[in-house]
């Protein structure tokens, strides 16, 4: 016959309490304390470095935005100068005045193109809500439904990004 199994909790009150394991030695405690302090210092240093990095990146972003804005405005200032010259000129020769305005327009378009801004044509194209803003619909004989028949305001792209949609009038069948 087998002996009955006893559960550890079935020991009587007389049973001795288990011996408690002795605590770590003072040398081990000192080493653990040093290690904890070193890790805590490392965490604080890493947090400070990250905060400095974040501030540096934000400052560089602001500096870059200021630089790009300054460069773009530097391209526009000669246009302002030419407009001021045109306004100061006597208004007796309208043909010369128009020629001056056309030259300023060309200079402005060139400055935009230099920065990667280009206008896109819409007339005759099919309406695309990603590029166009329809402000009117009109029955136009000979035009397909959804074809752009008039451009009220030009649309512009910066590379592949839409800066401003073209404001257009779209043909409808009925």
Structure commentary:
Helix 1 (26-88) packs antiparallel against helix 2 (94-114). The termini are far apart. With 174 residues, this protein is of the alpha+beta class. The chain has 2 helices and 6 strands. The longest helix has 63 residues, at 26-88. 48% of the residues lie in helices and 19% in strands. The strands form 2 sheets. The chain has a 3-stranded antiparallel beta sheet. The chain folds into 2 domains: 25-115, Hemagglutinin Ectodomain, Chain B (Alpha-Beta Complex); 117-174, Head domain of nucleotide exchange factor GrpE (Nucleotide Exchange Factor Grpe, Chain A, domain 2). It is elongated, with a radius of gyration of 39 Å. A hairpin with a 2-residue loop joins strand 4 and strand 5.
What order do the helices and strands come in, and which of them pair?
Blueprint: H1 26-88, H2 94-114, E1 117-120, E2 132-139, E3 148-153, E4 155-158, E5 161-164, E6 166-172
Parallel strand pairs: 2-6
Antiparallel strand pairs: 1-4, 3-6, 4-5
Helix pairs in contact: 1-2
């Amino acid at each position: 016959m087998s002996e009955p199994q006893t559960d550890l909790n079935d020991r009587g009150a007389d049973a001795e309490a288990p011996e408690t394991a002795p605590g770590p030695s003072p040398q081990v405690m000192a080493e653990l304390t040093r290690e904890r302090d070193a890790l805590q210092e490392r965490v604080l240093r890493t947090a400070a470095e990250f905060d400095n990095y974040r501030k540096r990146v934000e400052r560089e972003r602001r500096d870059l935005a200021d630089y790009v804005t300054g460069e773009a405005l530097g391209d526009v200032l000669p246009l302002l100068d030419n407009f001021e010259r045109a306004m100061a000129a006597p208004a007796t020769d309208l043909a010369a005045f128009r020629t001056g305005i056309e030259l300023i327009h060309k200079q402005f378009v060139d400055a935009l193109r230099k920065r990667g801004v280009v206008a896109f044509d819409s007339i005759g194209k099919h309406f695309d809500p990603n590029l166009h803003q329809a402000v009117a619909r009109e029955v136009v004989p000979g035009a397909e439904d959804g074809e752009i028949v008039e451009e009220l305001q030009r649309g512009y792209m910066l590379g592949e990004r839409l800066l401003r949609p073209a404001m257009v009038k779209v043909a409808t069948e009925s």
